Amino acid sequence: MQRADICIVGAAGGATAALHLAKKGIRSVLVDKASFPRDKICGDALSGKVVGELKRIAPELPRQLEAKQSVLPSWGIRFVAPNGRNLRIPFRPDYKVATDPAPGIRSAPKAGF
Ligand SMILES: Cc1cc2nc3c(=O)[nH]c(=O)nc-3n(C[C@H](O)[C@H](O)[C@H](O)COP(=O)(O)OP(=O)(O)OC[C@H]3O[C@@H](n4cnc5c(N)ncnc54)[C@H](O)[C@@H]3O)c2cc1C
Q: What residue's CA is closest to ligand 1, atom 11?
């Protein structure tokens, strides 16, 4: 049996907390009522803040993700209402899409989507 200093309840955010604790040498156990892997409703995008968080976990992670063919650069999010009205939220308001590197990344659309 292994010992842990901290018990984290709930994955997603909890997994990030566990990784940061491990980097500090603090043992944790992560429990979740769901079985993994599981599907979840998601836009499949990582904002600039999330990419920054990945860098804090392991500096090479964003570059490794960007190198995959299944991801595309992303500059922001667009929410579309059923009536077609939409709201654009850039990850960084000062970014120019044409010239600046993307602060975020997202999944490439699957064939036929
Ligand atoms: C429609 C939608 C689209 C999204 N798209 C994106 C996106 O594209 N990119 C992005 O970065 N974020 C996206 N998000 C946000 C992202 O999903 C959340 O920020 C993230 O899931 C929050 O993580 P969390 O761990 O706080 O909560 P959750 O993901 O809700 O995880 C909570 C966990 O706790 C577990 N749990 C609950 N109660 C118990 C219990 N009593 N005992 C044990 N386990 C328990 C649950 O099973 C669950 O796994 C989206 C959210 C929504 C709703």
A: 46
Query: What predicted TM-score, i.e. pTM, was given to this entire model?
Result: 0.83
Q: Residue 32: its pLDDT value, please? A: 96
Q: What are the average pLDDT values for consecutive 10-residue runs of the chain, which has 113 residues? A: 93 94 96 91 88 92 90 90 94 80 86 59
Q: Where are the alpha helices (DSSP H) in the chain?
A: 13-23, 48-57, 61-66
Amino acid 36 reads F
Q: Identify the residue whose tokens are 């499949």.
A: 44
Minimal-distance CA residue to ligand 1 atom 35: 10
Alpha-carbon distances, residue 95 vs 62, 74, 75, 89 (angstroms) = 19, 11, 8, 12
Q: What separation in Å is there between the alpha carbon of 80 and the centre of ligand 1?
A: 21
